[in-house]
UniProtKB/TrEMBL annotation:
GO terms for cellular component: plasma membrane. It is found in: Cell inner membrane. PANTHER family: 2,3-DIKETO-L-GULONATE TRAP TRANSPORTER LARGE PERMEASE PROTEIN YIAN, SIALIC ACID TRAP TRANSPORTER PERMEASE PROTEIN SIAT-RELATED. It comes from the Bacteria. The lineage of its organism: Bacteria, Bacillati, Bacillota, Clostridia, Eubacteriales. It holds the Pfam family DctM. Residues 7-418 form the TRAP C4-dicarboxylate transport system permease DctM subunit domain. It is a multi-pass membrane protein. This is TRAP transporter large permease. GO terms for molecular function: transmembrane transporter activity. Keywords: Cell inner membrane, Cell membrane, Membrane, Transmembrane, Transmembrane helix. The chain crosses the membrane at residues 6-33, 54-74, 94-113, 134-162, 168-193, 214-236, 242-261, 273-295, 315-345, 357-378, 398-422.
Amino acid sequence: MAFLPILIVFLLYFTGIPIAYALFGSSLTYFSFINDASAPDLILQRYITSAQNFSLLAIPFFIMAGSIMNYSGISSKLMKFAEVLTGHMTGGLGQVNVLLSLLMGGVSGSANADAAMQSKMLVPEMEKRGYSRAFSAAITAASSAVTPVIPPGINLIVYGLIAQVSVGAMFMAGYVPGVLMAISLMIVVYIISKKRGYTPTREKRATAREIFKQTLESIWALLFPFGIIAGLRIGLFTPSEAGAVAVLYTILVGFFIYKELKIEHFKDILKDTVYGTSSVVLIIIAANVFGYYMSWERIPQMLTEMMLGITENPMLMLLMINIFYLILGMFIEGGAALIILSPLLVPVVTQMGVDPIHFGMITIVNIMIGGITPPFGSMMFTVCTITNTKVGAFMKEIWPFILALLVVLLIITYFPGIVMFVPNLVF
C-alpha cells in the first residue's frame, strides 16, 4: 500500500491526465484513504505553503524575460551574430541553428520556446537554401535541447528547488555541458552537410571588421547572460532577483535600444508568462506534497537500500540510472521525470559520494535527450507540428544527433570535474 500512490501517478499520467493533477490525485488518495494520521486540512495547508517559496519567483521572471526577448529584437540580433560567426562553415544555417540555441540559453532557458521560435524563423530559410525539411526540423529539435542546460534554464531552477541545492551553483554547472552539447551537434551538422552538399550561407569567413560590427549591433543581447553571471558572482542579486533584473533589462533594451518592443505586445507576453508559470509551479507544488508522502513512508531510504544492495560502485550506479532515464524518457515527458524521480534518486547518489550538482546536470541532459526521442519527445512534437514534418521522416534524421548527445552524456557522467569546474571556480 505504501507504493500505491506511485502506481497511481503513472496510471493517471499514461491515461492522459497532466502530471500535476496525477500528483495531486495520488497524494490526496494516500492522505485521505491510506494514511489517516494527518488531518486533511493540514495536507491542504501544505499545498498552499509550498507556493510560498521566494525562489519560485525566478520561474515567472525568466519565462517573461524569454517572451519579451522574442518581441524586443534580441532574438534576431543573436541570429545575425551567430550567422556572422558560423555562416561560412559547411552546413552554414545548420551551424547557425545550433549556435543560436546556445546563445538563446542565456536569455530564454526554455527548450520548447526555442524550438518553436527557430521552427518559425530558421526552418523556412533552411528549406529555401536546399536543406531537407526533415533535417532542418531534426537539427532544430536537437539544438533546442541545449537551451535549458545553459542558465537560466527553468529545469536548473526546478532541480535546485527539488534537490535543495544552490540554484546559483546549478546555473554555473550548466555552461560546460551546454557548450559540449553544442560542439557535438555542430560536428554532426558538418559531417551530414559535407555528405549532402549543403552549402554555407557566406562565401568566406567573416572578417574581423564584420564580426566587430555585428558584435556592436548585438552587444545588448550578448551582455545579458554575462550580467547574470557577474551579478550572481559578486552577490548583487539572488537567482530570483536576477529574473526581475532580466525582465527590466529586456524591456529597456526592447523599448529604447532596439525599439521593436511595443505596448500591444504585452498582452501576448503576459499570456505566455501566465501559461508557462502556472504549468511549472503547479507541478512543483504537487511534487512537494508528493515528496511529503514519500518521506512519510521512507521510500527514498528504501530505494537507497535496495539500489545499494545491487551495487555500491558509483560509476556502475550512474550507468544504471542513465539507462533507466533514457528508457523512461521515451515514454514520459522530461519535466515529469525530473519532478518524480529527483527526490528518489538524489539520496541514493549522494550516499555514494556523487555531488548533487553533478547529478543534477546528468539528470537534465538526460531528460533533454528524452525530449527529442520518439515516441513522446515534447520538442519533437513542437517542431514537427510547426514545420509540418512527418514524425517518420524526423526519426530518420534525428538519430545521429541523439548519438552525439549520448557521447556528451557519458563524458559529463564519468568526468565530474568538467561539470564542477565553473561552480567551484565561482563559489
